Amino acid sequence: MTKQELVQKMQDNRAWVAGKTVKLDFGHEGTVMLDGAAEQVREDEGPADTTITTSWEDWQKMAAGELDGMTAFMTGKLKVEGDMSNAMQLQGVLAKLKG
User: Fold this and answer.
1) Which of 37, 41, 39, 44 is nearest to 10 (CA)?
2) I need a surface site. Which of 4, 7, 58, 97 has the fewest CB within 10 A?
3) How far apart, in whole angstroms, are the C-alpha atoms of residue 87 and residue 89?
4) Domains (ranges, CATH) in the chain?
5) Closest of 16, 14, 76, 4 to residue 50, by C-alpha
6) What are 85-95's pLDDT values in tens digits?
């Protein structure tokens, strides 16, 4: 899946935290903003309530169910800045992608 396909799939499945902004930072692969306030997903930079930083490869593994989000966090493969409660809802976001 490309990042553009991810953005479209997340938009189609309303994969955001209601009323919150969560930025997925994939490093050199760029960022995806899950904007629950505007109810949209876009490739964008900007301020967010929570920033989740991980590699594109590890994100793909989490989306496929091959890597648990908590395990990724505990092993340093996923970093969270800002409101941790939004990050805890990441599993729900990932579940929407499998649908």
Assistant:
1) 41
2) 4
3) 5
4) 3-93 (3.30.1050.10)
5) 16
6) 888 887 777 77
